[in-house]
């Protein structure tokens, strides 16, 4: 029985799709900059979700959007002196390079808000006609207080949300809590014709309209980061259910955690983002995926290069295991219990740390079996199959420009000096730098011996 944690009900629930096809909508990126590893976390989590559902026999249709009309896009275009179309096209292609490099399967559809504008305007019209929204001064706003269960996802109470903070009533709004579905045109901004005058859509309505168009008015799973629960996903629920009358809009809401860097969550605005394409120049996609999947998707993992370097070494051990030549024996290594452990872990809210523990334990069993002259072929094939579900390629990463002997000696000596001075973090960083360059080191007494992998 597959169970997922539902952020809406705050419980684990048995997964049962609405129809023959599992319909998944994942909030995508706003395309005004290169993707960072926080985006990679979300992309990898929902990639593994769809891979696992397919492995278990489900047919999956996944939609992941691009927000290509937004204040950040407009500001980037002004800063760079180019059109918003040039900005979004540049960073959409950058996003695809990132996810392709991470071995993330592309979604069934990657819609853009600007390409689904008729559906966005039509959905706003439905809300206005139904009385859930109102037009004012060329803009359109959603009536938050008319949705009796508004706040059911986030636990936010409207009055508590407004209390204690300054909320001046915007011109045209009937209530400070109301949010924009359509924004009246401003000078030098992209605009589209609408029944309320020229303008552009609000952020929240874009996702509802794209989900309706490409998946239907009710879906199985809606995914995204924890930071999107409020206001974005809360507002999606309100406007979607008001328009369609179908409740719930999504049966299950799944939210991944956010990367931390020394206590702070990762975002571009904090300036601590690690560009995905830059990361892929330093580490293999398998190492990045393994580092992310060693934490449960609902936790907030730490971005630490030492952890990714450790994952790189772990991937090397898995590759070495699956390359083992099997013995000609009538006594095979039993792999079925590890297969069951993997399935049980993944069935339990996509518990990738426990699933990986089963894989690593099987690798150890394979090595013991080889030493005991047992047939390891079935076990090796199982490792390949299970790691494939996690999107691991098991390919030897291309060699980077290596260090020459003199450079290696200098780093080894610098590490020895750091150890002598008890600067342990610096010594560990230097060791990881050597490991990333394919250099293994061994401390024997006062001497350090190194070799190339």
Short description:
The chain has helices at residues 37-55, 71-80, 84-101, 117-129, 158-162, 203-214, 229-244, 276-282, 285-293, 305-322, 336-347, 352-371, 377-389, 405-420, 424-436, and strands spanning 3-6, 11-14, 21-26, 59-64, 133-136, 139-142, 179-184, 199-201, 219-225, 250-256, 260-261, 264-265, 439-444, 447-452. The strands form five sheets. A four-stranded parallel sheet has the order 4-3-9-10, covered by helices on one side. A four-stranded antiparallel sheet has the order 5-6-7-8.
Provide structural commentary.
The chain has 453 residues and is an alpha/beta fold. It folds into three domains: 3-261, 3-Layer(aba) Sandwich (Rossmann fold); 304-389, Four Helix Bundle (Hemerythrin (Met), subunit A); 405-452, no CATH class. It is 44% helix and 15% strand. The protein contains 15 helices and 14 strands. The chain has helices spanning 37-55, 71-80, 84-101, 117-129, 158-162, 203-214, 229-244, 276-282, 285-293, 305-322, 336-347, 352-371, 377-389, 405-420, 424-436, and strands spanning 3-6, 11-14, 21-26, 59-64, 133-136, 139-142, 179-184, 199-201, 219-225, 250-256, 260-261, 264-265, 439-444, 447-452. The strands form five sheets. It has a four-stranded parallel β-sheet, covered by helices on one side. A four-stranded antiparallel β-sheet has the order 5-6-7-8. It has a two-stranded antiparallel ribbon with strand order 1-2. A hairpin with a 2-residue loop joins strand 11 (260-261) and strand 12 (264-265). Helix 6 (203-214) packs across helix 7, helix 10 crosses helix 15 and helix 12 (352-371) packs antiparallel against helix 13 (377-389). The longest helix is centred in the last third of the chain and has 20 residues, at 352-371. The radius of gyration is 25 Å and the shape is globular. The mean pLDDT is 91.
